[in-house]
Amino acid sequence: MAADNKIIISPEEAQRQQAIHDNGQVQSAIAAAECGNRATMFFMLLSSKLTIIYAEFLRFYVMGIGAVAANLNAIFCWRQAYLNHFEPYSLAKAIFETVCALATTAATIGVLAFAAMFGVISPAIAAGVLGCKTVFNTIAAIVFGAQAYRCQDPVQKAALRIKARDSALFAVACALATAAVVAVLIFAKPIAAILGIMAGVLGVAITVYKIMELDSAQQADTATPDHAPGSTSVILKTVNGLSPSSQPVNDIKHQHSVSMPAIAVTDTDHHEVEPLMRPLRRSSCA
């Protein structure tokens, strides 16, 4: 068996990798639906005639979809944290998304059930949630970018760069959405709905790209059973691209001392990216 670009992992770890991949795909799909829903809302608010249609018929559906998507995203963030053994970033993101989902749900229920009372409160809550997401993703982009700059290992550097890229793009999308909510829903400037449409389209583009990225990674990686009789390990062959997951130190055994290509994993929600070879995090990226 050729030694290049292969590592041996346990079947349990291979199953965990597949679960993380599937969870990431679901999170990306939810994020795409949420961003598309937001773009639809701002498109309806772009003109007075469409605003009347939205207020009379569509707002219950659009706002309901947004609340459901936020809660589903929080649930799958917790599943991602569990699959990643509650690593600090995964756990922090799950907690943050849960708080955002609760706030979004409260704002949605308020504006649908008590429109007169929550006419200004709900948009303010929505702007606050999106503003916090902007700050969260901006800080994440800065931190991951700084870590990538200091990192000497190419595998870990590639993973951190992807983290920084995804966080920065979502920070831009959230900033545009925040500006749109404030301008349109609070200060009644319909023309600013263009910013909301741009935010929604950008969010959909990012998440669709991430779905395609994960699919390409899975196709590039092949897992086959070890040839040794009664073996409890699998051989994970990697090529240039992204691997489904990271693996704990005790789950990875090098078949030979070979250099690995730049391998990383992206999940959506979000947006966590981990290196395939986690041991290098401690040795090369202090």
Task: Describe the protein in words.
By secondary structure, this protein is α+β, with helices and mostly antiparallel strands. The chain has one domain (6-284). 69% of the residues lie in helices and 7% in strands. It contains 8 helices and 6 strands, in the order E-H-H-H-H-H-H-H-E-E-E-E-E-H. It has helices spanning 11-44, 48-83, 88-113, 115-118, 121-150, 154-186, 193-220, 279-284; strands spanning 6-9, 222-225, 234-237, 252-254, 264-266, 273-275. A 4-stranded antiparallel sheet has the order 2-3-1-4. Strand 2 and strand 3 form a beta hairpin. Helix 3 packs antiparallel against helix 5 (121-150). Residues 1-5 and 222-284 have low confidence and may be disordered.
How are the secondary structure elements laid out?
Layout: E1 6-9, H1 11-44, H2 48-83, H3 88-113, H4 115-118, H5 121-150, H6 154-186, H7 193-220, E2 222-225, E3 234-237, E4 252-254, E5 264-266, E6 273-275, H8 279-284
Antiparallel strand pairs: 1-3, 1-4, 2-3, 5-6
Strand content: 5-15%
Structural shape = elongated
**Which structural class matches the secondary elements?**
alpha+beta
Strand order of the largest sheet: 2-3-1-4
What is the total tally of β strands?
A: 6
**Rg value:** 21 Å
Give the N-to-C terminal Cα separation: 35 Å
The H-and-E topology, N to C, reads as: EHHHHHHHEEEEEH
Helix content: 55-70%
* Count of the separate structural domains: 1
Give the mean pLDDT: 78
Low-confidence stretches: 1-5, 222-284
The oligomeric status of these chains comes to single chain
Count of alpha/pi helices? 8
* Largest sheet, strands/sense/barrel: 4 strands, antiparallel
